[in-house]
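Annual report, structural modelling task.

Input specification for the zinc ion complex:
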Amino acid sequence: MQNPQCAVAPLAGLSSLRHNACMSFVSTLSGTTSLVLDSPHSGTDYPEDFGFVCDLATLRRAEDTHVEKLYSFAPALGVAWIEAHFPRSYLDANRDTTEVDVGMLDGPWPGPVATDPVVLSKVRLGKGLIWRCTDDGVPLYDRAVTVAAVQARIARCWQPYHAAVGQAIAAAHARHGFSIHINCHSMPAVAASHATDFPGLVHADFVVGNRDASTSSEPVARLVCDHLRSLGYSVEYNHPYKGVELVRRYGRPAEHRHSIQLEINRKLYMDEATLEITAGFAPLQAHLRSLVERLLQTDPRTL
Ligand SMILES: [Zn+2]
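The model returned the following structure:
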């Protein structure tokens, strides 16, 4: 049972309380605007029951390190914010709970399992709900993972994270009649061997994904692309990342619920070897702020 103080700590502010004595798996700050941001992969609190056997430095390259800091200005603008503190390699909140790699487990998985070959491509890469290997193909475990452990991770991490994102979008939509959800990520400058279906690909500065205009309208995505290009960045659209579960599950453009995945090239703000923030961080953050301010002035129903 969590200490009651821990349950309220994330609401008090993001900067000082989240990494303190008790484990908080998800932070939520409610908003007042139509905009919702979430960061599912920037968590750096490695739970004691993780039990990985690979090198931590290698594992940490899977994090979208510092993404939560890049957007730290947003809650003060009335933007709703959801942030995972658990690492992506422990449980990937950007997967469905059916994307279980059943070959990793100590027994039969009692729930439904995805059969769609496109969905299963992530599982084949070792990047299902529970990761089998790092982006470089190094195994995380030297044992079968118990079914009970996976169920516990879903209960502690996946369920509260998705409940928070779903509630924030519903609240924004109820207030304004529309919502814009940006699912915030970062990507390495060059795709690793087991990270994607495009190993070795040199990434653009940004990749905007809306699953081929199925999770946001074309004009909302175009506005994001054009704004970033106007700032001098290279931007790809739906390649090599189209967006995954967190936009698929919540984006319903016909109902004016727009969800976009935004990937930022890590070379713009950090040293990928040391994970240190670089001088590029501040100008990038200013540009992200200008994007958020632009979206706050946007009613997608009029685009
Ligand atoms: Zn990510």
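The CA atoms of residues 207 and 236 lie 5 Å apart.
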